[in-house]
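Our platform keeps sequence and structure together, in a single record for each protein. Such a record has a labelled line for the sequence and another for the backbone structure tokens. This encoding replaces a full spatial description with a residue-level series of whole-number codes. Below, we set out a record of this kind in full and without editing:
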Amino acid sequence: MANQNEKKLIVKKSWCKGCGICVEFCPKNVLALNHEKVEIIDIEKCIKCGLCELRCPDFAIYLGGMEDEEK
């Protein structure tokens, strides 16, 4: 299993319904809505806190290991 430093933020745009909950809960303003889908706008600011993953009702955003690429 990947440790926290090896995890990366992954977005499944096809699952995103554009509610914006993840955007509102992100403490570092890493996310934004673009054309009613979540988008990573500044990955360098991401502290991998997992609040976006925790709050997403559609499981469209999560912290995954390097092998978990968007499909």
User: Anything to note?
Assistant: The two ends are 20 Å apart (CA to CA).
